[in-house]
Design goal:
Largest sheet: 2 strands, antiparallel
Number of strands: 2
Strand order of the largest sheet: 1-2
Mean pLDDT: 82
Structural class: mainly alpha
Number of helices: 15
Radius of gyration: 21 Å
Length: 412
Amino acid sequence: MTVPLAGTGTGTPLRTSTAVVVVVALALALFSLSTVETLPVGLLPLIADDLGVSSASAGRLVTGYGMVVAVASVPLTRLVRRVPRRTLLCALLALFVAANLVSAVAPGYWILLAARVTVALTHSVFWSVIASTATALFAPEVRGRVVAGLFSGLSLAAVVGVPAGTWLGQQAGWRIPFVVMSGFGFLALVAVAVLLPSRAGEEGDGTAGAEPSRRRFLVLMTATALVICGVFTGYTYITVFLTDVTGLPRSAVAPLLLGSGIAGIAGTGLAGARVDRRPRGTMVLAVALLTATMFGLCLLGDRAIAAVCLVALLGFAMSAMTTALQSRILHVAPGSTEIASAVGSSVFNVGIAGGSLVGGLLLPTGLGVRGAVLVGGVLAVGGLVVLLSESWVVRQGERRAAVRGGVPDMSA
């Protein structure tokens, strides 16, 4: 059985089984990249103690990463847009492997930060091209399911990567998880090099938005920035929250993150099942759950059972939102889906960087980590309001276009 390989320019068919293996390899790469991105969250106290820095300084390993991705995603994606996707992905994965080995042997804070900046540069491009590369291997009507399969790597990073990395770091030292992620990155590199067609992901069905809309895209990006900033204002310091507010031992953090990740797999699966039929509704529901969870943690975080359930719900909603967001980007991208994905990645990481920065500023104040979660919930409410305003924004644009002379506004 074969499916058309969109964008090869040759009409060369790709076996369905091979296309699925390619998506699995890309999901493994996404798993490794996403684990490394948030690994300092679980290892924050260990890294801070070993390198002799404060928790806030260690938190900036997340902040700096996010800032680099936010700034570099769009220009780097434009720069490499003509590079064959197999060549590009192999180069990115090779750099990822090398940078994580440097992280594992870093003698001090600044070298570790430099290695993470290097990984962030690979992230800037990888995240931008991976969805369009994967969906180009399949028919357009199954984009949502392909994205869900691809983003299972993201969910597994929460289920296996960060919790296992946290546990492994506690047992063998925080450096070992970075070595393990390099190994997974190398496996993904080999699979992509062997199986991905050299011209996959070039101009074709996977590179254009299904229903392009500049206004809908701008609403989506604004809401995403606010929601992610809100979530990471608290989540960056979730280890501190669970130990200081909930009163749990540090050894309980890894199992809790594991439970959150398992819930994330369910969130990815549910979003993937719904997103092709109700893309906007899936996004709204996920954001509403995230908002409710942040306020729930603030109000009930000192109760162990409630905190455990809310951390699991946070993982569920975050994974559902990420899957819905990428599918929505592919749907409403006003131009190239790769550039739109780069913008989405940039905005997402502006939210991560901004959230971890705001949380870090709040930690030493009277508000503390619980106040950081509350502020995060307020920001998430703002994102939900913006998301719900999408139809109104589009209608206002159509009215302005009519007043200007009745010329249809194609950006709506």
